[in-house]
Amino acid sequence: MARQEPERTCIVTRTVRPAAEMIRFVVGPNGEVFPDLRHKLPGRGVWVGASRACVEEAVKRRLFARAFKADVKAAPDLAEAIERTLREDLRQGLSLANKAGNVIAGFSKVESAAAEKPLVALVHAAEAAEDGRRKIANQLRKRLGDAILSFPVIQELSNDEMGLALGRSHVIHAALVAGAGSDGFLSRWHRYRAYRGIDAGQTGSTVGGAGEHTIMEPAGSERNE
Fold this sequence. Notes:
There is one protein chain. The chain is α+β, with helices and mostly antiparallel strands. The protein folds into two domains: 7-76, Hypothetical Cytosolic Protein, Chain: A, CATH 3.30.1230; 85-195, CATH 3.30.1330.30. Helix content is 38%, strand content 16%. It is built from seven helices and nine strands. The protein has helices spanning 52-60, 63-68, 78-99, 107-116, 130-144, 159-166, 180-195, and strands at 7-9, 16-18, 22-27, 33-36, 46-49, 103-105, 119-124, 153-154, 173-177. It is elongated, with a radius of gyration of 20 Å. The termini are far apart.
């Protein structure tokens, strides 16, 4: 019999949802509210839907004090701080996938892999030019056909963030092959996008999309890394 996932009630919307779709908050010794993103910290917790809009509403309406029944403090930039943490978590996820041997980096290697290997996602730096992304997508389209429209493409991380995660400079293009590291990274990616209110089916999340962070440059202007 499958184990039932625990559910919690959001203090903002009062809806009941799986704990995995919520953010748990606890109160520190100084009376300030902070997020328990791993759901592991001791003490009483309250739950908010895992979206920036919900967290902002909780802060604005002082719902944490009501939920904890105490004069607790929630920083005005709490929602923004959580987004920064989730973005850092995303970068660390790419680093872990790389250490697990699930990442291919560099334009030429990714272009070849798109034509030959069973990839599970592409990762382009936010600064990636249209020309480079299109060439890689064309190789992938030859193998996947219409299925390319649902193929995940991550474009949230910058060139510097990707370089830091992969331990090399000027990383523009990467690809993920199947493995636990890739699964973990994709899970973090979906959580980050959900928090920002971006549905996984919107433009920018698949090869078929134009890319929400695209910077248009002349064809051939991109350094192929």
